[in-house]
Amino acid sequence: MSIDPKPNRQPEIGAFFQRDRSWHPPAFTPGYKTSVLRSPQKALLSLDNTISEITGPVFGHDMLGELDNDLIHNFAKPGESAIGERIIVYGRVLDERGKGVPGALLEFWQANAGGRYRHKKEGYIAALDPNFGGCGRTITDEDGSYAFRSIKPGPYPWPNGVNDWRPAHIHFSVFGHGFAQRLITQMYFEGDPLIWLCPIVRTIPDRAAVETLIAALDMQATIPMDARAYKFDIVLRGRRSSVFENRLEGN
Ligand SMILES: [Fe+2]
To answer: Tens place of pLDDT for every residue, the chain, 251 residues?
Structure first.
């Protein structure tokens, strides 16, 4: 990974807020079977942030390829494109105070329109699309905004219960301004009935928290005769040292 000599952000300094563990799903959720063996067996300890969490690598736009934010074309043969419903996913990366996070690295990966991943351990019978790889990346602008093009992924079955299906989703990895702002999450699509049946989604205790993971169809951002748009904002942890008002922004 190259380090951009002219970073497109001025990093803040200072420790981050502690994670709100009542908002995030608990580690031990037996309905999601693999959580049983991989969840901690002992009580958690809370520690202050260290310098290795407060800091992190700086990402610049010059590390991106031309088609990194276009999953319709970034694996396709010249002149061809991926099969599926053409979509734009866009939004902003914000911190807990509602402030845009510029220079955040977003990486995303997803199944193809039939619900099949391009991965050697993938066993689902749906067909591969020779023109779809399923991953991409981008970096947020000065106000924390981002956008990429893709096709809408299909739902797929997975071996958890007898007949569990994942709703259509896109995986996101977000790297903000420090290792404490690393976030791995998933985005779902408005109106998908499988969201509320999914054992992974159901590990999230608060319905309002689930709703923050559902991208809304935004007809205003749609490109007519081309692609529909879905809006998805992502919230990372904020810096304690940057709170200068007597209330938290964005609440
Ligand atoms: Fe997935």
So the answer is: 444 545 545 556 788 888 888 889 999 999 999 999 999 999 988 888 888 888 888 888 888 999 999 999 999 999 999 999 999 999 999 999 899 999 999 999 999 999 999 998 888 999 999 999 999 999 999 999 999 999 999 999 999 999 999 999 999 999 998 898 899 999 999 999 999 999 999 999 999 999 999 999 999 999 999 999 999 999 999 887 654 444 444 43
The catalytically annotated residue of 32, 90, 117, 146 is: 117
Q: How far is the CA of 213 from the centre of ligand 1 (A)?
A: 14
Domains, the chain, ordered by start = 34-242 (2.60.130.10)
Of the candidates 9, 166, 237, 239, the residue annotated as catalytic is 166
Lookup: tokens for 148: 């990429």
Helix or strand or coil: residue 185?
Answer: strand
Place of tokens 């692609």: 227
What radius of gyration do the chain's Cα atoms show?
Answer: 19
Give 171 Cα–ligand 1 centroid separation in angstroms. Answer: 6
Provide CB contacts within 8 A for 8, sequence distance 6+. Answer: 60, 61, 102, 103, 139, 142
Q: Is 61 a catalytic residue?
A: no
Nearest to 65 by CA among 133, 120, 154: 133
